[in-house]
Amino acid sequence: MSLFVHQSRRPSPGSGAFKVSGYMFAVALLLASSILPRATVAAPDLDVPFVPTPEDVVDRMLEMAAVKPDDRVIDLGSGDGRIVISAVRDWDVRAALGIDLDPERVAEARENARQAGIDDRAVFEQGDLFEKDFSDATVLTMYLLPDVNLRLRPVVLETMAPGTRIVSHAFKMGDWEADQFDTVGTNNIYLWIVPAKVDGRWQLTTADGGRVNLSLTQKYQRFEGSAEIDGAPVALSDTRLRGEQIRFTVAGDSYIGKVEGDTIVPVEDAGAARNWHARRL
């Protein structure tokens, strides 16, 4: 027996939290009652109450994500569609998608988008978010329960591109520390930037052809490690990682780069080293 998780939200005034359906549970009970007709079995109420997302929280979520017209916004558990609709209507996003398991909420969201005159860009799909591919999002919004956030965390980290912005109303993602946090009234909002994968061994080539060997360990957006030049250890400090951008200092020289898979290319910045590159070994 399994329980279906509904990413549905109260139709008004905003997006809401998960709802757990007792459908399969009820089916199992009906089958049991057919075998034992004298038994009186009542299906428990498994619904989690809807908790609406206020409009000012929606606005702040999109503001923290620094939404731009060329973004692809996907809202998990889209309910009446207000985050998706706001992204298109107020932030001029080219395309936004809402995913919800409740067909009634999907129908309502589609009607709201039609009334707003943006149903060509604000699209809604019915289905289980864990069976959907949302890896093409550049901004992912959600108002889900903590355990669902934890189930989503490895999906986000493994399938979504570095630099993707993740915004959650109310709930964290376990020990993955948020890159930014804010409150609107009593509502907490968390922002994460999907970090590039930098753990492992790298060889950095300086502008004059010198070689620096780096050994890095990473936990989410934080990393540390050691460095060697000609086999001798040198200091590695000031390590920072935000999306694709990496910063560190080796032997007093500052490096700012962009991680592109197994290579790092320099980003021009005053005071930082120039004409260098690094590759993963």
Describe the structure using short key phrases.
Rossmann fold; 9-stranded antiparallel sheet; disordered N terminus; 281 residues; alpha+beta
CATH topology of the largest domain: Rossmann fold
Q: Count of helical segments?
A: 5
Strand order of the largest sheet: 13-12-11-10-18-17-16-15-14
| Main pleated-sheet profile | 9 strands, antiparallel
Q: What's the CATH class of the largest domain, please?
A: Alpha Beta
Strand elements, count:
18
Verbal overview:
With 281 residues, this protein is an alpha+beta fold. The chain folds into two domains: 4-18 and 49-193, Rossmann fold (3-Layer(aba) Sandwich); 200-280. It has helices spanning 23-35, 55-64, 82-91, 103-115, 146-159, and strands spanning 4-6, 19-21, 72-76, 95-100, 122-126, 139-142, 165-169, 180-184, 187-193, 200-205, 211-219, 222-229, 232-234, 236-242, 245-250, 253-260, 263-266, 277-280. The protein has a nine-stranded antiparallel β-sheet with strand order 13-12-11-10-18-17-16-15-14, with no helix packed on it. A hairpin with a 2-residue loop joins strand 11 and strand 12. The longest helix is centred in the middle third of the chain and has 14 residues, at 146-159. The relative contact order is 0.11. Mean pLDDT is 85; it is low at 1-49.
